[in-house]
Write a structure and sequence with these properties.
The protein is α+β, with helices and mostly antiparallel strands. It is 41% helix and 20% strand.
Length: 171
């Protein structure tokens, strides 16, 4: 059967429309309570974007030398909070151990995390060496930090786990 070229196959078009509508209907019925539609309470709204960027950051002293002891850890925490605030980073959890630091932070998409970590490490070292010059003499080569660091993204689903892990760190 040859159909003229201008003849439309309405049965095929109707079937496609019904299939599209039923797919839309199924999606609305079943995806209502899915993970995709759950609202996240701590997202930040910017101009034209919505974000929640969280990172778990760890860095160590050079040769894991135990530097932060005898009340020095509280001073470092206070200085870290002030420095992070100045570069627009929010610290959600922090623990200063004798030889390393754990942070759970939130930042804007415009923040270059590697630069922020460099600023945090550099400012702490400079501040500590000025305030406690005896530390520089106790460190081999006068360097406070190991040049490397650890960073992992933290999803909204496991923020509490990471926060608890950081806060439960003890000497």
């Amino acid at each position: 059967m040859n159909k003229p070229p201008h003849t439309r196959d309405f049965s095929r078009e109707c079937a496609a429309a019904i299939l599209a509508f039923s797919g839309h209907l199924w999606y609305n019925m079943h995806m209502e309570n899915s993970n995709f539609n759950q609202s996240v309470s701590n997202v930040t709204h910017g101009r034209g974007y919505v974000y929640l960027l969280q990172y778990h950051i760890v860095w160590c002293t050079k040769y894991r030398k135990q530097v932060f002891q005898d009340g020095l850890e509280e001073e470092v925490k206070a200085f870290l909070k002030k420095t992070a605030e100045s570069i627009d980073i929010k610290i959600d959890a922090m623990e200063v151990m004798p030889d390393h630091i754990h942070l759970l932070v939130r930042c804007k998409p415009q923040c270059r995390l590697s630069d922020a970590i460099k600023i945090l490490k550099g400012n702490i070292a400079r501040w500590l060496f000025l305030k406690h010059p005896e530390l520089k003499a106790a460190l081999w080569g006068g360097h406070l930090w190991n040049p490397s660091y650890f960073v992992v993204t933290v999803s909204d689903r496991n923020t509490e786990q990471v926060r608890d892990y950081i806060l439960e760190q003890t000497c």
